[in-house]
Specification:
alpha+beta; 5-stranded antiparallel beta sheet; about 45% helix; rod-shaped; Beta-Lactamase
Length: about 200
């Protein structure tokens, strides 16, 4: 048996669902799809003549079925959008509240985004990361290691890590470990930033 195009099968199933709902009287409420004046005039003309009355009924049935198809498609789109919004919120929460710092850094060394833990480890707020060069967040003698890691990834390294110190924020620099790899597509660097200091007991 020949396999049908998945999109064709989807459209055919949608048509069957629409026809079944019309027969059962369970079609979804109309979304306001309107029949144009020209179409109504054509239907009236066809229905007025005995020879074409059957054609008018067929056309009306086709219009109703198509309207139900549109309504079902619209309802599915709304459900898909809701599902995507919930998934995005879920993964955004996992990213933002992760116990380690996540940074996305451009190949030019500019921070593109970061989560709360990353901002805290670098001594700033989440809104103070994006658009900033990454090197000033680290002690002067640690900057070559950070920029060298980005350079190595830009030149083809699969990943890398280094231990560095944060810039002094008044209470001394903090020892940090950076683990990095290229993002899919190779247009940015993904970094995990974690503290090297033991957690208090």
């Amino acid at each position: 048996m020949r396999n049908l195009n998945p999109e064709f099968e989807k459209q055919a199933q949608l048509r069957l669902d629409a026809e079944a709902r019309l027969r059962q009287g369970s079609a979804p409420p109309t979304r306001g799809w309107a029949v144009g004046a020209d179409t109504l005039a054509l239907l009236y003309r066809l229905a007025s003549a005995p020879d074409t009355a059957a054609d008018a009924l067929k056309l009306l049935s086709e219009l109703q079925t198509h309207q139900v198809e549109l309504d079902l498609q619209h309802a599915q789109l709304e459900a898909d959008q809701q599902e995507l919004a919930e998934a995005l919120a879920h993964y955004r929460g996992l990213y933002d509240f992760a116990p380690v710092g996540y940074l996305v850094v451009g190949l030019d060394g500019q921070v593109l985004e970061g989560n709360r833990a990353g901002a805290e480890l670098l001594g700033t707020g989440s809104d103070g990361l994006a658009g900033q060069p990454i090197s000033p967040f680290f002690a002067r003698d640690s900057r070559p290691a950070v920029l060298g890691l980005i350079e190595a990834l830009r030149e083809g390294a699969q990943g890398g890590c280094c231990e560095v110190a944060s810039s002094d924020r008044g209470n001394g620099p903090e020892a940090l470990r950076i683990t990095a790899s290229l993002a899919p597509g190779g247009e940015a660097v993904l970094m995990i930033v974690s503290s090297c200091e033991p957690s208090p007991a």
